[in-house]
């Protein structure tokens, strides 16, 4: 009798599982496929991202090797790399462009490179570019322009550098009271 009860319970349990499976088999199959596909898609995405980064790095190294022999082609490659998705390559390319323009005393070209990259999404890179612009224009910049570029109100990576640049600016323009105020705030 006890054996019969357990068999009946087992049969009822099997029937419940079969009903649940038949009722939700599309959902179960979908979830199984989804669980299998997510890691595959994830790996493909990062593989593609890595390949793109390798391509950008390869182009950057190619431009570095061309800079002495074919400067125009190297500059064109650096210009193209400024629009890449890799932040490191963007920074390196902008630096090489600026370095090249400054060596040739082409300040206007250097400023145009900086102006075209001022609104970069990375706060770190954006601040770095604004500091470079402030330094390039240091001799001819007005107070409101340098204050807008350096924006000391933001609590960020380069606060000390920005403060020192602003102090130097005020000391250069014989505005020692403002320089002393900034020194006290620092």
Can you tell me about this structure?
The longest helix has 65 residues, at 2-66. This protein is mainly alpha-helical and 186 residues long. The mean pLDDT is 84. The chain has eight helices and no strands. It has helices at residues 2-66, 71-81, 87-103, 107-116, 123-136, 143-150, 159-172, 176-185. It folds into two domains: 1-105, no CATH class; 118-186.
Mind sketching the topology for me?
Layout: H1 2-66, H2 71-81, H3 87-103, H4 107-116, H5 123-136, H6 143-150, H7 159-172, H8 176-185
Helix pairs in contact: 1-2, 2-3, 3-4, 4-5, 5-6, 6-7, 7-8
Features:
186 residues; 2 domains
Q: How would you summarize what this structure contains?
A:
The chain has helices at residues 2-66, 71-81, 87-103, 107-116, 123-136, 143-150, 159-172, 176-185. The chain is mostly helical and 186 residues long.
Q: What percentage of the residues does DSSP assign to strands (E)?
A: under 5%
Provide the structure class.
mainly alpha
Number of helices: 8
Instruction: Write the element-wise H/E pattern from the N-terminal end onward.
Output: HHHHHHHH
> What's the overall geometry?
elongated
Distance between the termini: 89 Å
